Maltose phosphorylase (Capnocytophaga cynodegmi), 768 residues
Amino acid sequence: MNQDYIVPDNWCIIEEGFEKDRVMQSESLFSLGNGAMGQRANFEEHYSGKTFQGSYIGGVYYPDKTKVGWWKNGYPEYFAKVLNAPSWIGIRVKVNGEELDLNTCKSVRNFKRVLNMKEGVYTRSFVATLPSGMEIQVNVTRFLSLQYDEVGVIRYEVTPLTEKATITFESYLDSSIENHDTNWEEKFWNTLDVKQVGNRGFIVAETKKTAFRVCTFMENRLEVNGVVSNIQKVNQKENYIGFVYETSAEKNQTAQFEKYAGYVTSFNHPKEKLIEETEYLLLKISSLGFEELLKDQKEDWAEVWQMADITIEGDVKAQQAIRFNIFQLNQTYSGKDARLNIGPKGFTGEKYGGSTYWDTEAYCLPFYMATKNAEVARNLLKYRYDQLGKAIENAEKLGFKSGAALYPMVTMNGEECHNEWEITFEEIHRNGAIAFAIYNYVRYTNDFAYVPEMGLEVLIGIARFWHQRATFSKDKNKYVILGVTGPNEYENNINNNFYTNYIAQWCIKYAKECLDKVKTSYSNDFERVWKKTNLSENEIEQWLAVAENMYYPYSEELNIYLQQDGFLDKELITVAELDKKERPINQHWSWDRILRSPYIKQADTLQGFYFFEDHFTKEELARHYDFYEPFTVHESSLSPCVHSILAASLGRMEHAYTFYLRTSRLDLDDYNKEVHEGLHITSMAGTWMSIVEGFGGLRMRNGMLHLNPQIPSQWKSYSFKVNFRGQILKVSVSPKETKLLLEGISLQLSINGKDVTVENGKEMIVSL
Ligand code: BGC
């Protein structure tokens, strides 16, 4: 099967030609989302071929009971899942009584899908020859409104090409929906009400256990040559409502069907009033109509791009890829609602349960901070603050006490909700990323006020956890951290993972630094938090004893930190020496063999060098990079971006570029052969970082932006923008020079090691 069938284009994702084998891949690639809901690009009409149906609502989840072979104390009780929600896109089409189904058509010609990322609109067109020989032209336009984020719009046009025909549309809502990944083959929705009011249909359904109530709705309109048709028949079942419309169209005359549909949920409205609220919404929507909604959509996306776009000249595939990444990140999370977060697959599939991982703090925060604003970034932090109580409960379940907080590796509501102990649960390093995000946010936005308000309590909980989790080793006369999994999930239950130990001591020191600063500058908050957390000087001293005497595995001979105790006992054969047929190893090797091997799934020790770059010299970085990268298989989508950034910072642009390509076109070219399951959303933020932090060399140091731009030899130029403390800086890089342009007042920054001041509207040119 052809993996890279997407036609290169600056602004669009394009597929040409219908191939049944690629339907599921394209369903992922052409997914739509608006931050509040999202859906795979399933066909509206009936399709009897292989498909993966998916429609999801932000924040609506189900705690599926964990399935493990042998239950042990401390296991998370459930695995939370983003739910496949009732479907509203369905429109069955019949021509002279014969059903349109691309799987059974005699032929499908001129098939084309276009995802116009500039406008946030997805179109599909084709000429189908039905089994009877009747030929029809179909054009479909669909979008999920950014402005009215409960609403999606479909325009479905059918034109008979052979002769005059009777065309029937059955537009429906269906709540008999299932998740592919249920642990116990259960259905997760109870349908409460199925209702018709005139041209409008409603299904009210509620999730089991979590009781999220959702009104899925539709309003339809069929028109041929200015004549509007009424509903002919209503098909109503327990979990289904369908309105049948019929019309006749002359040869080459178009029957135009419009559907306004979506979800109104108890997440945002009173439970008992969902239908009422929906009717109110539909009044507004239908008065606007298709064209007006489309116009709004284009304007709203233009606004997103105005700030978030990255341009690349000289490489269409790279340009298409970076825009695809930025587009998907914006489809997944808008930052409007601190209850929502970013699932690794966004709204494009079920894997990873749509839950929040350390990915948000470690990979996504910088993107939203720089392309939106401090408020959006603050919402991402607040999400964790709001879940602090649960993080404390999580730690208590494992035997920690006195307010120690262990944030979950995977969560929907603050509770740990994953069913793999060693691979996921033991990754306690995530606590570090959550503290690091607070630091990263404050250093970028200068909003230290977040710390006394919320962040400090989180930092205290985390510091307490590390203090209690470390063990004093008499043998080493140091504190050690035993039984963990680092970011490299191909090693489980190891002792003294360098990254974990390092970030643990850093968290403690940062918590202490923040405590001191809050004490001096925010004394009221300090007292409140001090009392609330029951903290004492004595406890802080104990934390610091751990931080200052932390053990790091080190090889004197190689002059490097070891990923964990005993790493050098492994058979150190590099990845390059492996037979290509055995890769990816996670699809070819037993777990036993993987665990014993030296192969690293994703940046681990190097993740530490990425976060704490300024704690190490360039020589140290080069030594560690040269040692670890050759053992790294990059089998997590989060791996290439960090390596790209580190390679760029070492001036190794060829490496940086190779890694960049891999991260940016991971899904478009289906490197990991799994795009049919959904897209890798969180690593898309890593792609953005590869350009801005990698090639652009953007860093924060001493309250100031630092740039050190380089450009891959394959590109003519590239540009990006960052919102830095309310001022917008545009950076355009070519092999000769860097141009800086400011929208704001004035900004002092460092470029190539030299301090400069950029004034509003005056372009500054710096030679490379
Ligand atoms: C990675 C984790 C990541 C998760 C979700 C895994 O494959 O190893 O680091 O958090 O995917 O993206």
Observations:
- The pocket of beta-D-glucopyranose is lined by residues 344, 352, 357-359, 487, 489, 601-602, 636, 638, 682 (CB under 6 Å).
- The chain has two domains: 6-308, 373-633.
- The CA atoms of residues 490 and 502 lie 20 Å apart.
- The longest helix spans residues 274-308.
